[in-house]
Amino acid sequence: MKSSFKLAVFDLDGTLTRERSLWEFIHKSIGKWYGFAEEYQAQFLNKEISYDEFCRLDAEVWKGMSAERIRAIVESVPFYEGIGRLTSYLRDRGIKLSLISSGLSVLSDIVKERYAFDYAIANELLYTNDTLSGEVRINVHFDKKAYWVERIMNRHGIKREEVIAIGDSLGDKEMFEIAGFSAAFNPSREELNSFADIVVCSDDISDIIVKLPC
C-alpha cells in the first residue's frame, strides 16, 4: 500500500532509545559523568561554551578507550519496544527511513543496519589504531537538523507535506517545523508538544501507527 508520505525522519537518542543521551550514557557507564562531563553540559546550557566545544570536551574524556570497549557500552543501550513494527509499517508503504541524530554514529550505524534505514547521520568519534583519539567530527548540531532533512528531500524530490518527523526533544523542533506531519514520542519537554501533530507516551513506539495519517 503506497502512502502520500515519502520520507520519515527519526531522532535516535530518547526516541528509539530509552536513554535521552548516548553521550551521557557512556559517561555514566565509565564513571565520568558526575563531577566531570556533567559540568560541561551545565556550561553549554548556561551558554558559557559553544556546542562544538561541548562535544569536544565530552570526547576528550574518552581518549584512549578502545573501539571494542566503546562499542560494548553502546550495544548495552536499552531500546523502546516496537521499533521494527513501526519501521516495517512505514517501509511497506514505500516511505524512506532516515535517522538524524546529534548523538553518535557508533549507535546510529547499528540501528541503521538492524532496522534497514535508508540513511543515518550522526556525529563521529575519531580513532587512531582502533583507539579513541579524543576528537569528534560534528555533523549534526542538536538544534539544526533541518539541514539534513532538506538534503534528503532535495535528493529525492520530496516535498515538505510528504515528510513525517518523529522525535522527543526541543532539538527536534526544526524537523517538526519542516515536516508535513510530526509525532512527539515521550517528549522530554512539554514545550515540544505545541510543535507536534500528535503526542504519544508509551513504552512501545509502534503505538504511533494508529495515529499516523498513512
Describe this structure in words.
The protein has 214 residues and is α/β, with parallel strands linked by helices. It has two domains: 7-17 and 79-211, Rossmann fold; 23-74. The protein is built from eight helices and seven strands; from the N terminus they run βαααααβαββαβαββ. α2 (33-45) packs antiparallel against α3. The longest helix is centred in the N-terminal third of the chain and has 13 residues, at 33-45. The mean pLDDT is 96.
Order of helices and strands: EHHHHHEHEEHEHEE
**Uncertain stretches of 5 or more adjacent residues:** none
**CATH class wording of the largest domain:** Alpha Beta
Shape: globular
Please estimate the helix content: 25-40%
In total, how many beta strands? Answer: 7
**First-to-last CA distance:** 9 Å
- The percent range for strand residues is 15-25%
Looking at the overall shape, the CATH architecture of the largest domain is 3-Layer(aba) Sandwich
Strand order of the largest sheet: 4-3-2-1-5-6-7
CATH superfamily of the largest domain: HAD superfamily/HAD-like
Radius of gyration: 17 Å
Query: Helical segment tally?
Result: 8
The average pLDDT score comes to: 96
CATH topology of the largest domain: Rossmann fold
Classification by helices and strands:
alpha/beta
Biggest sheet record: 7 strands, mixed
Return the domain count.
2
